[in-house]
């Protein structure tokens, strides 16, 4: 195959400018194969234009695409909206409707940014963790849920933290497979000392270890994992955990790296459908439209897309190498500036990657 | 009142030795008022002796006590037990049966330990956070819960993440009251962008802010809070959150401080019943019985007991001041040793505090 349909979801805030910088940076690849970009709406932009954060037209285009690049969603403008008209709701609908149950979030510390973290250099130097987060189950999607009024007039709010065996199996399989391609160490994070849902999680993860005799499996309770990530992050290779614990721990892990502006992610699951590749950072409405945003997380997300969804690992390596060279040469957007770097804007950063590519 | 019945729960691992060191350190106070210590069983020790991690006899003595000092529970010996025979289950039963809905966990960085954290000194210096964690609700105690087998043969595990309005009100009141006595800034942590239970939580916390016009209320999503705690912890004064998010975030916050061996906690709720005061660290079976444990977290927990449960704030100040002096003089157990300190064991550390007191 030498032509791919890639849906672009620029979303809100800095989304459009980092999307433009990414498309520009990838331009040299077009001589090797064709990336047909098509834009669609999600999040606040979609609410404003179509009255829904995940319009049917976007879903239809998604299903017809080979892969999806998402920039960022949300902003204060929509924060007070009812739940069905909030940008986040669009994101959750996308994950669920496209079957994106596996979220891969690497936290790899680049040598140039060792000093940029709030943790000591000797703690973060060499850290290279892959957090595998389950993305379509757990308390995010569990039912029953809601806010009820009791006969007494008191309100009660509830969400069901629930996992089916097959949901744990398929995410564990992803995690074991990732571990096999990396350091062969897998840490499963749960709260099995308190929660039944975690007990099932742990049972299933242990049972599956029979199929992966080479992978060293360990378990940590989520509270301990939150400590260990800061105390001694180099102990981790691959971590696997549920949706809500993964939400918390992957964001915590991202702080090991100097800037959120460098962190890509991949959301996958359905072998016949598109995966979604997006930066871990938000839409940063405060700097939107000022050419200050860092497009590297989105460019690195595009590299993950090439590797995991389009079967183009060599080109993924090329994109990552280009980013490395640009970092080496000391070009830096606002968020990663340090002594001796040359300040560039969002657009120029895209140009620099393009040149190296 | 000049005589208090204090139940001691030494528990497992290093529990007995830090309990002995604490009782010894507090000895000088006995000339001011009487602390009648009575020991009882909890955790693994109680399972071994009575077949239950929270025996009826312990509950009865607890109810007859003014306050409770708990050391630590758990160990590999009981890890494989069924849930009802696990040490943690005793802890949860204690919290629930004694109505201990409010868990206060200070994370205050002592100047002597600024360099002991894995975070940079300039990040942790001056950090002084109080985490107020709800302790008897949420997914910890919510029903329905369990592991079922579906007709298909597949298993499903679930726990209900649930809060009643009155549960949120009473923990929020504790948090606002604590904030009024401190820096008057309160950050409520939830996941209201996704969870109904968090939406109710947030509504109630906001509604109650009317009664506390002087307190500056902010909100963070739990994933963001996990980042902000590392990125810039000095932004926080008091944090209030639910049971599971509090479990994770309070442990994360404890890493800002150089050693878990310094961190006390208080669990309260029922004005007519005893509160429970305990170190944040675990039972450390690997160093149990070797006189290596740090008793300061338990001694500082006793100070919290004096302040919050026995109405003896002056004596609480005295105990904390004594610990400060001992730290200043450079006495240090294994976990907090640094350049220029004098190594002491658990027992001797208790003696040093006693001398200063
Ligand atoms: C925006 C929010 C719904 C989302 C989540 O909680 O999954 C975000 O925090 C993330 O991690 O992608
Ligand atoms: C031991 C465990 C049940 C307990 C909890 O999760 O509450 C512990 O982690 C704590 O924070 O006191």
From TrEMBL, chains A, B:
Keywords: Amino-acid biosynthesis, Branched-chain amino acid biosynthesis, Cytoplasm, Leucine biosynthesis, Magnesium, Metal-binding, NAD, Oxidoreductase, Signal. Homodimer. Belongs to the isocitrate and isopropylmalate dehydrogenases family. LeuB type 1 subfamily. Its cofactor is Mg(2+); Mn(2+). It comes from the Eukaryota. This is 3-isopropylmalate dehydrogenase. Pathway: Amino-acid biosynthesis; L-leucine biosynthesis; L-leucine from 3-methyl-2-oxobutanoate: step 3/4. It is found in: Cytoplasm. Catalyzes the oxidation of 3-carboxy-2-hydroxy-4-methylpentanoate (3-isopropylmalate) to 3-carboxy-4-methyl-2-oxopentanoate. The product decarboxylates to 4-methyl-2 oxopentanoate. It catalyses: (2R,3S)-3-isopropylmalate + NAD(+) = 4-methyl-2-oxopentanoate + CO2 + NADH.
